[in-house]
Amino acid sequence: QVQLVESGGGLVQAGASLRLSCATSGLTFSSYAMGWFRQAPGKEREFVARSASDWSGGNTYYADSVKGRFTISRDNAKNTVYLQMNGLKPEDTAVYYCAADRASIPRMHPSRYDYWGQGTQVTVSS
């Protein structure tokens, strides 16, 4: 049984930092690309960042809105992916989800991902 469990969300002020974690089990973590998505109230789920699997190059991809502020990383030994978020803004407020994609082709649409976590709330006050 595949499980993805996010943690690390919270309430912070604008300009602060948070690090989200997503611990996985039940899948061959190193073979999967891992992504972070977010969904704000009344909005569609949107792509945030992607980390390709090591064997497919280990490249990272970011949404323009977070480029330069967020960093995705992965620890294959711990089967965990992280999202370091710096310089948080009120518009970053959302539920953040991690997801796993078995495909090696870079994909940013949420429908392309195979497994999802339950999400963790991030709230940034102004």
What does this structure look like?
- The protein starts with a strand and ends with a strand.
- The protein has no helices and eleven strands.
- The model has no long low-confidence stretch (mean pLDDT 95).
- It is globular.
- By secondary structure, the chain is mainly beta.
Mind summarizing the main beta sheet?
7 strands, mixed
Mean pLDDT: 95
| SSE order, one letter for each helix or strand | EEEEEEEEEEE
Radius of gyration: 13 Å
Q: Share of helix among residues?
A: under 10%
How far is the first residue's CA from the last residue's CA? 40 Å
Number of helices: 0
From the spread of the alpha carbons, the general shape counts as globular
**How many DSSP E strands?**
11
Strand content range: over 45%
Q: Which structural category do the helix and sheet elements fall into?
A: mainly beta
Spans where pLDDT lies below 50 across 5 or more residues: none
Identify the quaternary structure here. single chain
What are the SSEs and their pairings?
Blueprint: E1 3-7, E2 10-13, E3 18-25, E4 33-39, E5 46-51, E6 60-62, E7 70-75, E8 80-85, E9 94-101, E10 115-116, E11 120-125
